[in-house]
Structure formats: C-alpha cells, structure tokens
Amino acid sequence: MNWTPITMHFTNTLNAPISGVEVQAYVNGSLITSSVSDSNGNAYINIEEPTPFMATVYYDNVPIYYVNVNSLINQPIGITIGLYNVTVLFVGARNQAISNAKISLYRVSTGPIYNGTTSNTGTAGFTNVLSGTYLVTAQYGNLKYSELVTINGNDVITIKSDILAIIDGFPITTMEALIGTLGLGGATL
User: Fold this and answer.
1) In a domain, 62, yes or no
2) Could you report the per-residue pLDDT of 143-170, keeping only the tens digit for each?
3) 90 and 74 fall within a common domain
4) Would strands 42-45 and 143-151 be described as parallel, antiparallel, or unpaired?
5) Which whole-number Å values give the CA distances from 16 to 6, 11, 42, 94, in the listed order?
6) CA-to-CA distance for 146 and 126, rounded, in angstroms?
7) With bands split at pLDDT 50, 70 and 90, how would you rate the model's confidence at 189?
8) Which residues pair with residue 135 across a beta bridge?
9) Do 68 and 91 fall into the same domain?
10) Which of 33, 54, 80 is the last residue of a domain?
11) DSSP state of 15
C-alpha cells in the first residue's frame, strides 16, 4: 500500500511560512521519522502504516509543541508559531541612549538565547523571537541590568540603567557620581 506523507504546515502569526521547523514523529515512544519544514513552511512526515503518532515540534532546537496525530488524515495540519520582532532600548539615568552594550534575550527554562549589540540609538533589534518569558539583559562593561518580560507580540523593551555618563568608554553611575561629589572617594590626608 502506498502512503502519502502527512504534511504539517508552519506559519507565524502573520501567516508567513516558517522554514527550518523540525518535526519528530514517535510511535509508542520510539522515533519513527523526522522532517524539517521547507521554504513553504511544509514538513512531510513519512508514516508507513495507519498508526497514530506523537509529533514533537522544535523551533531553534527548542521543543514548542506536542501534537497527537491520526495517521489516516489526508489534509495538511496547520500550526502557527508565535515569532515576533523585538527591539531592546537601553538607556541611562538621564534617558540617554547607551550604544555598544551587549544585549541578550534568554527564554526562561528552555532557551534559545538571542544576542545583539546596541547601536548609537541605544537599540538592538531581534527578528523571529519565539514567544515566551525572557530574561532580557543589557551589559555595558562590568555593569549588568536585567528585566523579566513576556514576549507575545512585536515589542519594544526598555532597559533603564543608572549610567549617568560614559567617559572614554568607562561608565559613570549615579552612585559613583554621588560619591565623587561628596568627596567619599577614599582619599586620605
């Protein structure tokens, strides 16, 4: 008997196809086959017998869906994956843009991690960010600032720091400026 592959069609929330989505098909806990979606967002699962299977869907090496599939289905299975464009804005104590800061977005518990560097406008842009809860970290020199955020749409995330100024690549925080102003810098007589 000739079986036609089961088609799984992957799109983002704007209905655009997503390539590179991996699907692993399991029967009774054993991996039977796997497939990766093509540029049209289609992954073809070759099941050789009429057996229900569990499909595990991975995006960026992260398991995001578990789907029970009846192998006798004869139409594409559509799955929408929440992928978004995210901009991180890193600012100082006076809301000034902080450029050349390292930005990371870590999807809590599962990954992935997205990394970037802020431009002279203090922004770093990320595309195709998987929806979820993220620890967003901005680092300039040895200073780190983090926020826990939920990403479920195209967002701008602002990370505010206590950096008052940057002089020759060295950040001056509000606390350091206060200590300098009060003369508590450790000088002795």
Assistant:
1) yes
2) 999 999 999 999 999 999 998 888 888 8
3) no
4) unpaired
5) 20, 5, 12, 40
6) 17
7) very low
8) 106, 148
9) no
10) 80
11) S
**Quick check: is 189 in a domain?**
no
Phi-psi region of 168 (alpha: psi -120 to 50; beta: other; left: phi over 0): left
Sort 126 into a burial class: Cβ within 10 Å, 0-12 / 13-18 / 19+.
buried
Helical (H) or strand (E) element with 117: strand 113-117
Q: What is the C-alpha separation between 130 and 152, in angstroms, rounded?
A: 8
Q: State both tokens at 36.
A: 């990766």
Token pair in block for residue 4 = 């036609």
Give the residue with greater pLDDT, 14 vs 180.
14
Same-domain status, 128 and 56:
no
pLDDT 10s digits, 23-51: 999 999 999 999 999 999 999 998 877 78
Continuous segment of H or E residues that includes residue 150: strand 143-151
Tell me the pairing of strands 83-91 and 155-160: parallel
Residue 159, classed as helix, strand or coil, is strand
Find the domain containing 34 and state its range. Answer: 6-80
CA atoms within 13 A on the CB side of 13: 11
Per the confidence metrics, is the pTM higher than 0.70? yes
Q: What is the CATH number of the domain that holds 46?
A: 2.60.40.1120
Secondary structure in 3-state letters for 27-50: ECCEEEEEEECCCCCEEEECCCCC
Residues 93, 73 share a domain: no
